[in-house]
Amino acid sequence: MVTENKTLDIERNIGNFFYPETHTHDAGIGLSEKTIHYISDVKQDPDWVREFRLNALRTFLSKPMPTHWASKDLEAIHFDKIRYYLSGGTQPKRSWEEVPEDVKRTFERLGIPEQERKFLAGVEAQFDSEAVYSNIKKAVGEQGVIFVGSAEGLKNHPEIFRKWFGKVIPTGDNKFSALNSAVFSGGSFIYVPPGVKVKHPLQAYFRINAENFGQFERTLIIADEGSEVMYMEGCTAPKFNTATLHSAVVELVALKGAKIQYITVQNWSNNVFNLVTKRGLAHEEAEVKWIDCNIGSRLTMKYPGVVMRGRKARGEVISIALAGDGQHQDTGAKMIHAADETTSNIISKSISIGTGRATYRGLVHVPKHLKHCKNNTECDALLINANSRTDTYPAITVRGTGNAVQHEASVSQVSADQIFYMQQRGLTEAQAMSLSVNGFVNDLVRQFPMEYSVELKRLIELEMEGSVG
Amino acid sequence: MSNSSAVLEEETAAMPQTAGILGGIQGRTDDALPAWFADQQRAAWTQFQSLPMPARTDQAWRFSNLAALDLSPYSAVGPVSEADGREILERSTGLDQISGRLVFADDHILERDVLSEKLRKTGVIFQPLERAMIEHEDLLRRHFMSQPAKLGSAKFAALHEAFVRSGIFLYVPRGVEVELPFETFHWLHAENAAIFPHTLVVADELSKVTLVENFRCTDRQRPGFACGVNDLIVGAGAKVTYVCAQDWSDRTVSFQINATAVARDAAAINLHLALGGKFSRMESLSRLTGEGARSDMLAVAVVADNQEFDARTLQDHVSPRTASDLLFKNALHDRGRTTFGGLIRVEPHAHFTDAYQKVRNLLLSDDAEANSMPGLEILADNVRCTHGATSGQLDEDEMFYFLARGIPAPIARQLLVGGFLYEVLERLPDRVLIEKLESLIATKFRAS
Known about the structure:
A: alpha/beta; eleven-stranded mixed beta sheet; eight-stranded parallel beta sheet; 12 helices; B: alpha/beta; ten-stranded mixed beta sheet; 9 helices; 22% helix; 37% strand
């Protein structure tokens, strides 16, 4: 094997930088009822939200860490040392000239537009986002689509918001969903009226300044009957170091015949614990599709789920994970079949580089007396170096006849023959390796919108640099 | 659980018929047992008491029905009556041609079929455990309970070690190939009897041997408890085939904890057939410790009524260039329930591992439930590891084909299920053995 005995040295520090903290609202360090009251006061929460947060805090404190099955690394999180709320005055103060050369180079390599680079570098928090955002908002607003921050959503649209908020992912779902429920701020609220097919993908990216990249964002998307919407969050560029714990909750509700696609590209810096709960509820003939790509963070635990509650509902998870040196990508999917003729599909591909560890954890549940439910799960893992690690832990429960579930997983390494072939034709070993890895994930990367898939490919090339040779 | 028994006193000569196993091992004196063994049993009892009962949050017990694990009704009991013994021997029908046979009822030996002179001369040992620990103390001390129970049942392995009083020891010396299989029968007879059958197979370098163990009950309605351990030590270049055919009563709770160590260029085939029992848990661990080692792990389970079959496996690739292949098939009737939790683990530096794991569930009733957790932990690159898990039902086209040719539905179903399970059986190298297991499965179909 060509890559054996070579340790991989990814420059993960590329793009990790800080901006000075000058926040007008700061809930201080640690978590207590006082913190919750502070957040509720600042955000002028209605009483029910304040109560909801306090309840969630109690649930959070009472729940044990899931270390009986999850990584022991979770014990490294010190909840008393975390700031749970910061806002206002986040306008960074630095000039483009101060941005380190290598960061600029990374942006260059990724092909990020000039304006966005400035934002990402923390030079300009606004860039053009406000303008683009309002254009998008105007365009979709004419169709009756609501696309606002979650705080605005719960204030201005309580009749829709409250009906679904915390219903797909109850506070007590897990310790981290409880934490999010206690201290959430930021995130998006989207409502798509019946029959409306949103042409533009809605991007969180456009409302960055509206504290979308918060630590504890809460997103709720409701697609009413027969509507369609695509939402994208994150971006491929490495992100500056904001905090060590990111714990979001994302709830999707697809009513009869609706379609929701939710695309995530996660590239947190490699000191971040990224513990996210994402779940969609698919009603009759509705479809929820998660496209999830995890590249950054120290430990990511994320298992997007779909509860198929109506007949012929469909759930899908497409997952790509890239675990570099020192990283653990613990990702997967949950498919809960709760009605007849529901179908789900999970395709997961992971790449472990250097000491990286990629884990697939899956749950497929087909309860009693359902007919004609189908699940297909495929997970493939690629190991680049001799010290790389990959795990697969699926759990599949099927009751009754008339359902079909299949799961397949394979682990392999890059074919030495392929590498040899490419080297014969003048490619360097590193280029050949990068090409192989891109080929491995290619069919999934293609499912991303064009601009994302181009960036993803470049990003994989970047990550692969130095893994060989 | 009463802890008063932790202090041991060895004064009672005969075991009281009513001593529940949770009461401890006092009064279990067997003067014939060597001191080292008695010490080990005492230590094991202390360990059993100190280990916690499995809890819902234990990953190794995920999906298991923990309510089945109440051990309070069961006791170790005395020998069966002579008349019962004769009847049991009559019912112990197995293979026609064998190398040797041992029959136990409620953990007491009923019959030992002496080895042929020819086999004895080669140095083959096939005897009850209690005799082996005196006559072959060195071998026993080296291998008895030497492999840890890693798959969740450490507590029950300790219980076994504390209570074991019989079982078999099979030793095949270097280069000896035994053609005909060895055979054992372990019967559960008395109501609420607890038995702890132990099997230790040591196959020295380049030897070859087959052992078939039958676990049965005299009365299908009688409750009982069996907690067995079978350890297979396969020396370099040796070949061991082990078959466990379990048909406990409908009210038996059982554990069968297996550890197989496969050395360089050796091959082990392990087949577990589970037909009876209310709750049957099997744990099977294959450690591939030398280059070129190979382990085939096979299981067939047919569950009906409220039966539960709970299987946990680990394919542990310690050395480079090793292979393992697991194939488990479950046929589920009525409210039957199966759980499969398997893991392929490739240790660091175990390169060129070739591991395969496949579990297939055939659901034959709307109330049946199959849980599958096929897992992989790969810490080396340059490996080929694949697993698959499927759950489905009988192919309607195939059923239609049978029906169209005038074959009644129940028979058609039985043929199809039989065919489904046959794929596992046919991995055995012995034609006679395959037919024997097929007929056992067929008996279960006739009963249901």
